[in-house]
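Box 3.1. Reading complex inputs
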Amino acid sequence: QSVLTQPPSVSGAPGQRVTISCTGSSSNIGAGFDIHWYQQFPGKAPRLLIHHNTKRPSGVSDRFSGSKSGTSASLDITGLQIEDEADYYCQSYDSDLSGSVFGTGTRVTV
Amino acid sequence: QALLQESGPGLVKPSQTLSLTCTVSGSSVASGGYFWAWIRQHPGEGLEWIGYIYYSGTTYYNSSLNRRLTISKDTSKNQFSLELTSVTAADTAVYYCARVRGYTGYDEFDSWGQGILVTVSS
């Protein structure tokens, strides 16, 4: 029931920059609801990475940044490091579904 | 941040009821400004929002689970719970409890439990 679409995987060399897209619709991102991003390592709980489109919680590296435009959002990871290998999920609210929705998830390989 | 911990049986028989509890510390399920949520993740798949409960007791459920789902809270124990009836193998998943900041339910899940694997099998 994922209404937010992400690429299944992205990859990059150490030090490079990768971008993960999150495409929604007029009932979620396009309606003005904020996007939040999570990082998840295998066997672990997700961790909040970016909230309200661009804000980093305390302790999150400034190599992670978010943006939003129209019905889409993006997560940028600069200076890619081995420890960034994980799954990344976007999340928003959908007015048609009246609840939170997650993206399909993206596996980042370094 | 809050600390959340899921507890409950790891194995449930088909057609029975899945019951999980989330114990919260560092935050109160009786205080405004937060929703208390359940999210699940099927093996090898993405995250699925199940539902949440506000401090007032108002609940919001994923429509695909609505008829089988109850989320409640016990403020005396600072816990909230999930009950999912008539389970099938399709309900096998890791179940997470989490906290949502804000007054609308539109915001981020800022604290998560470690997750509990629930397998539905006879």
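In summary: The interface with chain B takes residues 1-2, 33-34, 36, 38, 44-48, 51-52, 57, 89, 91-93, 97-105 of chain A (CB under 8 Å).
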